[in-house]
Amino acid sequence: MDASGVITLVNSQLERLTGYQRDDILGKPVEMLIPERFRPVHVQHRAGYMTAPRTRPMGVGLDLYLRCKDGREVPVEISLSPFTTPEGLLVMASIRDITARKQAEEEITRLNTALRRNVEQLSVTNKELEAFSYSVSHDLRAPLRGIDGFSKILLAEYSGQLDETARDYLRRVRVAAQRMGRLIDDMLNLSRIGRREMQPAPVDVSALAAEVLAELRQAEPERAVTVIIAPEMTAVGDANLLRIVLENLLGNAWKFTGGRADARIEMGTLEEAGQTVYYIRDNGAGFDMAFADKLFTPFQRLHSEEEFSGTGIGLAIVQRIIARHGGRVWAEGAEGKGATFYFTVGEMVEEAA
User: How far apart are CA 173 and CA 169, in angstroms?
Assistant: First the structure.
C-alpha cells in the first residue's frame, strides 16, 4: 500500500485467504480488509505510522483480524516493512493466518480452566474425606475401648463362671476390637499425611535406613537377617515423612522374610533416565504380579491376617508421602521369591489449598 493507505500490490496468498480477486482489491483503501468496528481507529493508527514508518509488527498485544469477502473475520499476525520507490513511500504488509494457533490456545485455555475446576473440586472432596475419616476415627475409639476393656474384665473376673466356648468368644471379641483399633490408628495416620506441613532438607537415607533396621532387630533379636544398606544414599525431602516410608517398606521386608532361615534385605540405588531410584529388595514371601495394582490401595491385602499381620494401609501411606515429594513408587515380585519396591524423590509438592 502507499502512504495514503491505498492497496497497490496483492499476491495470490491474500486472494486465497480473503476470497477477493486481485482486481477487487487493487486501488482500494486498505480499510476494506479491516472489520468495520476497527476501521475508524485503524485510520488513525495508519496515519500515525506513516509519520515515522519503520519495520515492526502491527498491533503488538492486540487481537488482529482480516475481513474476508464473505464477511468472515480471520485472526492474523501482520508485520509492516516500509520502503522507498521512485513513486514514493510504500509499505509491505506480511499477513499470517493464525486461526489454527488461536483455536489451539482457546482449547488449552478451556482445558486449563476445566483442570483448575477439577483440582479445586478434588481438593475440597479430599479435605472432606480426610475430615470425615478423622472424625469417625476419633468417634469410634471410645466405644472400641469400652468393648475391649469390658471383655478383658469379663475374662479376668468372671472366667470361672464361663465355659470355654464363652471365654473363646470373648477372646475373639478382644482380638477383633484390637484389630479395629489398629485400623483406626492407620486411618488417622493416612489422613494426617495429607495435612502435615513438609520440612524439606538434605536427608541421609542410609543412616535413616540403618536406624529403622536397628529398631526392627531390637524388637526381634532372635532373628538372623542379612542386611545390606548402600552407603551415602541421600535425598532432599522431609526427614520425618521419609522415615515413615522406610519404616513401612523395610518393616514389610522384615515381616515377609519371617519364614526364611536365610532372610536377606537389601537397600540401594540405581540410575534411571538421569534420576536416582531407591530400592528395597527382600527374598521373602513375594506376591503375584497380577495383583500388583492393588498393592497401594488402602486396606487391600495380598496375604491373609493369619499369614502376616497388618491392616493394609502402610503402602497407601508410602504412596501418598512419595507423591507429596514429587516422586513415584512401584514394585516387582514373584510368589515365594521375594519382592523389590522402588521409589523416587523429586520436587516436593504441596497439595492444593
Answer: 6
pLDDT digits (tens, 9 = 90+) for 28-68: 999 999 999 999 999 998 899 999 999 988 877 788 999 99
Which CATH number does 119-195 carry? Answer: 1.10.287
Contacts of residue 229, defined as CB under 8 A and 6 or more positions apart, other chains included, come to: 206, 209, 210, 213, 266, 267, 268
**Are residues 310 and 301 in contact, defined by beta-carbon separation less than 8 angstroms?**
yes
CATH architecture of 12-97: 2-Layer Sandwich (3.30)
Distance between CA 279 and CA 224 in Å, rounded? 21
The residue ranges of every structural domain in the chain are 12-97, 119-195, 199-353
Scanning the structure block, which residue is given the C-alpha cell 481438593?
123
Any idea which architecture 199-353 has in CATH? 2-Layer Sandwich (3.30)
pTM here is: 0.55
